[in-house]
Design goal:
Length: about 170
Amino acid sequence: MQFKTYAKTLAVALSLAVVAGCSSSGGTQEGNMDGTSGNMSGQGMTSGQGANGSQMNANQQRPSVDTIYFAFDSDEIRPEFESVLRGHAQYLMANPNVNVTLEGYADERGTREYNLGLGERRAQSVEQYLTVQGVSPSQISIVSYGEERPAVQGHTEEAYAKNRRVVFDYK
């Protein structure tokens, strides 16, 4: 009688182990680097499917805008810069041998440590946007300068706005 109870318990435990082992990890939003699957909106990815590298290189120019700006104390990408980021994503996907460093900056308000963290979070936001679009993470590196190396000297809101940025530095 006790043997049947143990056998049933063992059967249930094995079934749960098999079900747990077969469950999906949930995947990521980054998708595959070959552009064949993932949760992509189709922007930038559909144009690359079926084309060889030379066709894409001929059609892709590096975007002329290399700087995007952020709101005060924010690492959210502003909607007006999404087209710029999509252009950089398409360029990087068309040129897999090209690497970029995302330089994050903050204005002078806040402590040095806080501004270094904010600059890093801004660069990471841009990195995440690019990788979701399909750019290989191996092409991207990040550096934060915080409030160092301001684009504009001054203590006005206009100067601060120009210093809250991420700059694309292509190698």
